[in-house]
Amino acid sequence: MALTESNAQQAPVQDLPADERQQPTELVVREIVETLLLTFFIFWLVNSFVGRYRIDGSSMNPTLENGQYLLINNFSYYLTDPDHGDIIVFKHPNSDLNLIKRVVGVPGDHVAIQNRQITVNGVLLNEPYIAAEPTYTGDWTVPEGEFFVLGDNRNSSSDSHSWGFLPEENIIGKAVVVYWPISDWEMVPHYEQPLN
Predict the structure, then answer these.
(1) Residue from 76, 101, 160, 174 carrying the catalytic annotation
(2) Which of 6, 48, 58, 59 is catalytic?
């Protein structure tokens, strides 16, 4: 038999004692500590996989401009090796500077710069992203465990043509996105080179 509102009796609502209505101080402190630990863990995790860098200088013009801020994937080269056309951030082999350049040669490649053109393993690079053709010349064979990198502003860049090869262990990560200023927001334009 169902009860109707008229014949159902309501139990009186009793107030809890004041000490049971308030959370104990220990519980509040524990929740704050857990929240802080979780926040620090998430911050550490994000910073392990993503770096933030500011472009200082014009060596990557016109692809990247002075003053832009980038997000870098610090984990990408744990899964794959840097490839031709990748834009990477790395520690300078001879100083404490972090630099950003484009990978032109990988281990085993023969890089030649002559007549304002770059060839890799005898294949002429198609480089619509550079500021101007290089005015210097050179001939390099990239050793195992090292890379040959150049700035897109070929004639105003301190890079492998002037200081040599980049050791693989100096590579920090792959540039992913320009996030500041907001008007410049874009994915970083890597350029795959069909050299095979």
Answers:
(1) 101
(2) 59
Whether the Cβ atoms of residue 63 and residue 129 lie closer than 8 Å to each other: yes
Residue 88's pLDDT is 96
The ranges assigned to domains in the chain are: 53-187
pLDDT digits (tens, 9 = 90+) for 20-58: 555 678 777 778 877 777 777 666 655 656 678 888 988
* Residue type, position 84, single letter: H
| Catalytic status, residue 95 | no
pLDDT tens track for 161-186: 999 999 999 999 999 989 888 888 78
pLDDT reading at 141 higher than 50:
yes
Q: What percent of the chain has pLDDT over 90?
A: 52
CATH topology of domain 53-187: Umud Fragment, subunit A (2.10.109)
DSSP H or E run through 111:
strand 110-114
Q: Return the residue matching tokens 């770059």.
A: 118
59 is annotated as an active-site residue? yes
SS3 call for 76:
helix
DSSP-derived letter for residue 8 is: P
* Residues 86, 113: Cα–Cα separation, whole Å: 19
DSSP annotation of 62 reads T
Tokens of 170: 């100096």
